[in-house]
Automatic annotation (TrEMBL), chain A:
Matching SMART domains: EFh
Domain EF-hand: 91-126, 127-162, 172-207
Keywords, ordered alphabetically: Calcium, Metal-binding, Repeat
Higher taxonomy: Eukaryota, Metazoa, Chordata, Craniata, Vertebrata
Keyword Isomerase: no
GO molecular function annotations of the record: calcium ion binding
Descriptive protein name: EF-hand calcium-binding domain-containing protein 1
Pfam families reported for this sequence: EF-hand_5 (PF13202), EF-hand_7 (PF13499)
Automatic annotation (TrEMBL), chain B:
ARM repeat residues: 596-637, 760-802, 885-927
Organismal lineage: Eukaryota, Metazoa, Chordata, Craniata, Vertebrata
Protein name: Armadillo repeat-containing protein 4
Compositionally skewed regions (Basic and acidic residues) per UniProt: 340-369
One Pfam family matching this protein: Arm
Region (Disordered): 326-466
Residue ranges with Polar residues bias: 418-432
Coiled coil: none
InterPro entries according to UniProt: ARM-like (IPR011989), ARM-type_fold (IPR016024), Armadillo (IPR000225)
Length: 235, 1048
């Protein structure tokens, strides 16, 4: 569709602009293909076509770059949270921030195209090992390689329905945190190290997302596959 | 009042020391009766009312000094009556809260003073004075008088005692009135008579059938003699209310010796035979009826009684209503509960009123499965069990009290439990989505009624004081389950997994705290992780059958069946694993089938290996119900199982072969197992290292080898050798039973016997004849019976000492075993040397006495065995005559209704009749008319041996004419039309003998025997030729003689 415009000879300012963008698209397409070529070799779980689809999707999500400077930055926190919410049904702010932080490897506050593809590789198709690392990072709010009591409490705060009758509404929460720590803190140092986390999850896979849903469920993965990979290929 | 007070009135459990009267309508009416008696005493019997008691009646009263008026000295709170005894002691004395009264006039006055509290006063008085007779009249007189010789002995007493005697007579009169009142009330409500007991026993006897539905092994009376009143207990025991004694063999526990009395049923000291002097003492609690007793003694009975669809399942109408209500939603929980409570009380009261004399009326509630399962059952059985019957007597009140402490503690505990589970129920409503759930506390209460846990409440009662620490931790976790989002729920589920879920305390705590309900609710959500977690926990706790029942009751099994459709592998596997655990009782298996679970499980067999394995496990559990076997077959499960049978993994093979083995009880299944070529794989796995797998394979072959082709296949695939080598695993009795069973069935084919003998199977089998359990012995002996069809093997059995072992087994009681033993003995007896040993061991007498066995199979098998014994024994005639009562026994069986028995007896009689002296004796016993009566039977096997017997009996006296007179000739003539050659031969021989009597010839001629006889003359069988020729000749001679006579 876009390529057809290239062959038209128009001189109006509008068509000038169109021509310019289509030239850009043409250039982009080549660029995308070569980028996809390289990235698919570096990132697990996606083939070249899929990477290409992801790049396109990234561009769509990013919107038409008006300023080249902004384009370099990628998705900001707000945009990414909207994506997580709309595409993967996530609601918890704290967890979504954690996911953003985990995707944003260079910690520049934006998710670049590479970060997007690398992140989704684990997010959508990660092995158990990869997912353990990913989840641990999401829950390790301050990035000190430990999940401490202070980090768990806010994450689980909204998990319990408050009993209005209870004297101390947070008592249940404290109990829950203690029970969880008791189970996961394998070396008994009062906090959950990566080793603790990994060992516990290997024993019981259900504990992978122990402190909140940070991975998509089957339905959203399928919806994503459908929308991003298959539809684009059909075009 | 003595008797009625100690026996009829019921005392409740007491804190200790003094008893308390239970608040029952019966007690209430008795109290009123006593009150009226005391009230009127002063006016009606002024003289006796003044009589001073030996000891004051003392009780704690609610009356205070101010209640007393004139005639009393009042000082502060104390009161004394003006009336004093000869020594100046006041006849009434009050020092609050105690009051002492020493005459009826004082009692009478006091009652008047008490006004509206008088009933309470009488109650308190009776509670305070457990034996008022002794206090009033003194111990000596009481005991003298109670012996009944009152009038004569007391006359000698002086005048002063006169009023005392009168008083006694009045009291006794009163007592009689009270007793009559009690009896009237009791008899209005129930009537227990020997007929009712007889029905009950008949009912149980029907449960002894073979096969899957078998609930009991055997039920028999110790005495066959029934007195004219319907009792079987000897008269001197009938006095104690005992009706009969029973010996009941449950399937799973030791034999029970039971006394059935008017008071109920209880275990006795082991009365085995009639006229035993000992063993009458009661060795267990008294149960209201036999079903209740068996339910508490035999878990197998308890489980299977529900499957029986006999008349006992009727529901009284009120309880039906209750059931309907319980299906409704939660809002009704509360009212329903109180209603239930009421019901319970009513039943409790009713029971207390007439604890003795419970009969079939009550029993009707007992095995109603639906009602029971909903947990709404009043604790009939329990209450009865705890309450020793009053009329059986002999118990001191102390004993009663001790026993009563049990239920009191229990009910206290129940209360605690329902309180603790109440908040759980409230909060669980929030996440409750599915309808039809029953409040949790209804179940925690019902637990004590469920028959599996007869022992349960006792154990828990002890632990109420200190609940295990896990209980509180589980409570916390359950709270998170109830009030948490997905994340918290998963955390709680994982925390729950850390408890020792195989431990009963944890399992029951989860149930009691409402955790089970939430776990089941989670199964209906969309959260995969929650479902997985829940199923992982349920899979553990459902090992407990009680939990399994609750899961089914709450509709959890339906949800689990639904999950089988999931696309998530783990979920499918877990769901199937849960079904494997839960489907251990009939109702659960039915539920699986009704919700399409069998089809879904069969489908699992096609997919992932682990999922298929779990599917096979579930099918294995389900296949214990006949209808499920059919459903598995219809769903195409057999070829899939056949495919999995090729798996190299033991953990896959065990459930697969287990299912096949279970299903092979069905003929249709056996055919497919054979046609699908599974015998080969079954044989292959006989060589496995795993005992369990070997056992199931052998068991499957055992069942399938009824079929000849299968037997041949087992040989073809070289399965006989491994089967023989399994015989060495003597420690594993289950395996041994399966292996010997397979060998038995395979040995029905003689080619297999030859093959088996290459591995010296016979020697090993004979070796197994000693010290093995009965289910092994049945198979071993069965196999010997087949092996002994080959002459050489008979000698081997003898040389290995098998004859002696076999003869020893003739004294057993297991009917299946006896059938096989007699068959084997019979087969061995065809060898003269064997026969000599059998004779020497008195084996013939033992076989003969088995004719007394009530089982028709045993009777016929024994009779068949007698034939070769009589034929081959030395001095057989003399030996038979030496058996006391032997002739009567065998002649009597000619009245049997079973054709096989009749055929075998005819055969045996024919053998016996070869001895002239015995023939004469048998004729005297009236055998001829009995045989004549049987001639109209159509069974060929019977006809053959009957004709043979008739043939032999013709050789004595006027028997030929007697047969003719009895009308035996005409039906016998029709035997010639039979298709059975053996019938032709014996019939022709009989006709030949009969034709020696002219009248018989006329009958034969009329019946047109000549034509078929002439036809048989052309037979190859010389015996037949001769007999027919002889017969025709006799008819012809008569004819000629007749013509000559006419000519002259």
């Amino acid at each position: 569709m876009v390529t057809e415009c290239k062959h038209r000879s128009c001189d109006s300012p509008v068509s000038q602009l169109l021509k310019k963008t289509s030239e850009m698209s043409a250039m982009n397409r080549k660029l995308i293909q070569s980028l996809a070529e390289t990235l698919s070799k570096e990132v697990e779980h996606f083939n070249k076509t899929e990477v290409e689809c992801l790049i396109r999707e990234f561009n769509v999500l990013l919107g038409e770059p008006t300023l080249p400077v902004r384009a370099a930055h990628g998705l900001d926190r707000g945009a990414f949270r909207t994506i997580l919410h709309n595409m993967f049904g996530m609601t918890d702010d704290m967890i979504m921030d954690g996911v953003f932080r985990t995707f944003d490897k260079d910690k520049d506050g934006f998710i670049s195209m590479r970060e997007w593809i690398e992140g989704l590789s684990v997010f959508l198709r990660g092995t158990l090992d990869e997912k353990i690392k990913y989840c641990f990072d999401v829950y390790d709010l301050n990035g000190d390689r430990y999940i401490s009591r202070e980090e768990i409490i806010p994450m689980l705060k909204n998990s319990l329905i408050r009993q209005p009758t209870e004297e101390d509404p947070d008592e249940g929460l404290k109990d829950l945190v203690e029970i969880t720590l008791k189970k996961m803190d394998q070396d008994h140092d009062g906090r959950i190290s990566f080793e603790d986390f990994e060992k516990t999850v290997r024993e019981e896979n259900l504990l992978l997302e122990a402190f909140g849903t940070c991975l998509p469920d089957m339905t959203s993965i399928e919806a994503f596959n459908q929308n991003v990979f298959q539809k684009q290929l059909e075009q | 009042m003595g008797v009625s007070l100690t026996k009829a009135v019921q005392w409740t459990s007491a804190s200790s020391g003094t008893g308390k009267l239970e608040f029952t309508p019966m007690n209430e009416s008795l109290l009123k009766e006593i009150l009226r008696f005391v009230e009127q005493f002063n006016s009606q019997h002024p003289q006796e009312a003044k009589h001073v008691f030996e000891e004051p009646l003392q009780w704690s009263t609610t009356l205070v000094a101010s209640d007393f008026k004139t005639d009393y000295d009042i000082s502060d709170s104390d009161v004394q009556s003006h009336e004093k005894d000869s020594e100046g002691h006041p006849l009434l004395q009050l020092s609050p809260p105690n009051v002492y009264a020493r005459s009826f006039s004082q009692l009478s006055k006091l009652i008047h003073l008490a006004d509206d509290k008088k009933l309470e006063e009488v109650r308190a008085c009776l509670e305070g004075n457990r034996d008022p007779m002794v206090k009033i009249l003194g111990p000596s007189l009481t005991s003298v008088l109670q012996k009944g010789g009152a009038h004569t002995e007391v006359k000698e007493e002086d005048q002063g005692e006169d009023s005392k005697v009168k008083l006694f007579l009045l009291l006794q009169n009163m007592d009689n009135q009270l007793l009559n009142k009690c009896l009237k009330e009791i008899s209005e409500q129930v009537s227990l008579n020997p007929a009712a007991v007889k029905n009950e026993v008949e009912l149980l006897k029907r449960l002894c059938s073979e096969g899957e539905k078998r609930v009991l092994k055997s039920v028999r009376y110790t005495s066959d003699y029934e007195f004219s009143n319907g009792c079987r207990a000897p008269p001197w025991r009938q006095v104690h209310g005992e009706i009969c004694y029973l010996v009941i063999e449950p399937c799973d526990t030791e034999t029970l010796y039971i006394t059935r009395s008017t008071a109920g049923a209880f275990l006795n000291g082991g009365i085995k035979q009639e006229q035993e002097e000992s063993g009458y003492e009661r060795t267990s609690d008294t149960y209201k009826d036999l079903v209740t007793l068996l339910t508490s003694r035999s878990p197998h009975f308890a489980e299977n009684i529900n499957k029986q669809d006999f008349a006992v399942q009727e529901l009284p109408s009120t309880q039906k209503i209750q059931h309907v209500e319980s299906v409704d939603a939660e809002e009704q929980g509360q009212p329903q509960r109180s209603y239930e409570q009421q019901e319970k009380n009513v039943h409790e009261k009713a029971r207390q009123q007439h604890a003795p004399n419970k009969a079939d009326g009550e029993k009707k509630y007992e095995p109603c499965p639906r009602w029971k399962n909903l947990g709404l059952m009043p604790p009939c059985g329990k209450a009865e069990e705890k309450k020793p019957s009053k009329s059986s007597g002999g118990e001191t009140s102390g004993e009663i009290q001790k026993k009563k402490l049990g239920p009191a503690a229990k009910s206290k505990m129940k209360a605690e439990f329902s309180v603790s589970s109440l908040p759980g129920r409230l909060s669980s409503q929030k996440i409750k989505t599915s309808a039809g759930a029953v409040p949790v506390d209804a179940f925690s209460e019902s637990s004590s009624e469920s028959e599996e846990e007869e022992e349960q409440p006792e154990r828990r009662a002890e632990s109420t004081t200190d609940l295990p620490s896990e209980y509180w931790e589980i409570q916390k976790v359950v709270k998170f389950l109830k009030g948490g989002d997905q994340t918290a729920t998963v955390l709680a589920l994982c925390a729950m997994m850390d408890f020792n879920l195989m431990q009963e305390t944890c399992q029951l705590a989860i149930r009691d705290l409402g955790g089970l309900e939430v776990l089941i609710n989670l199964l209906d959500t969309d959260e995969v992780k929650c479902k997985i977690g829940s199923l992982k926990i349920l899979r553990k706790i459902s090992h407990n059958v009680q939990i399994g029942r609750v899961i089914v009751d709450m509709g959890g099994l339906q949800s689990i069946v639904k999950i089988l459709d999931s696309s998530v592998k783990d979920l499918k596997a877990l769901a199937a694993e849960n079904i494997a655990n839960v489907a251990r009782f009939h109702r659960a298996r039915r539920t699986v089938r009704q919700y399409g679970g069998i089809k879904k499980l069969v489908k699992l067999l096609e997919g992932d290996v682990e999922v298929a394995r779990c599917g096979a496990l579930a099918l294995w559990s389900c296949s214990k119900s006949t209808k499920n076997k059919e459903a598995i077959r219809k769903a195409g499960g057999i070829p899939l199982l056949g495919h999995l049978l090729k798996s190299p993994h033991e953990n896959m093979l065990i459930p697969v072969v287990g299912t096949l083995q279970e299903c092979a009880s069905e003929e249709s299944f056996r055919i497919v197992i054979q046609t699908e070529g599974m015998i080969k794989d079954l044989v292959k796995n006989l060589n496995s290292e795993n005992d369990e797998l070997q056992m199931h394979c052998a068991s499957a072959i055992f069942k399938c080898a009824e079929d000849k082709q299968t037997r041949d296949l087992v040989r073809k695939y070289k399965g006989l050798k491994p089967l023989v080598s399994l015989l060495s695993k003597e420690d594993n009795k289950e395996l041994l039973a399966a292996a010997t069973g397979a060998i038995w069935k395979c040995s029905i084919s003689m080619e297999n016997v030859d093959e088996l003998q290459k591995y010296k199977a016979l020697e090993t089998l004979v070796h197994l004849l000693t010290d093995e359990p009965e289910d092994v012995l049945v198979n071993v002996v069965g196999a010997l019976g087949e092996f002994a069809q080959i002459p050489a093997n008979k000698a081997i059995i003898r040389k290995c000492g098998g004859i002696k072992s076999l003869v020893n087994l003739l004294t057993g009681t297991n009917q299946a075993l006896l059938v096989n033993v007699t068959r084997a003995v019979g087969a061995c007896a065809t060898d003269m040397e064997n026969m000599a040993i059998i004779d020497q061991l008195d084996g013939v007498r033992l076989v003969w006495s088995l004719l007394k066995n009530p089982n028709a199979d045993v009777q016929s098998s024994a009779a068949w065995a007698l034939c070769p014994c009589i034929e081959n024994a030395k001095d057989a005639g003399e030996m038979v005559r030496s058996l006391v009562g032997g002739f009567e026994l065998i002649v009597n069986l000619l009245k049997s209704t079973n054709n096989e028995v009749l055929a075998s007896i005819c055969a045996a009689i024919a053998k016996i009749a070869k001895d002239k002296e015995n023939l004469a004796i048998l004729t005297d016993h009236g055998v001829v008319p009995l045989l004549a009566k049987l001639t109209n039977k159509t069974d060929d096997r019977l006809r053959r041996h009957l004709a043979e017997a008739i043939c032999h009996f013709c050789m004595w006296g006027t028997n030929r004419a007697s047969f003719g007179d009895a009308g035996a000739v005409a039906p016998l003539a029709t035997y010639l039309m039979s298709n059975d050659k053996a019938v032709h031969q014996s019939t022709a021989m009989a006709l030949y003998q009969l034709s020696k009597e002219p009248n018989n010839c006329i009958t034969m001629h009329q019946k047109g025997v000549v034509k078929p006889l002439i036809h048989f003359m052309g037979s190859d069988d010389e015996m037949l030729q001769e007999a027919t020729a002889g017969c025709v000749r006799n008819i012809r001679t008569l004819c000629l003689a007749n013509r000559q006579a006419q000519d002259q």
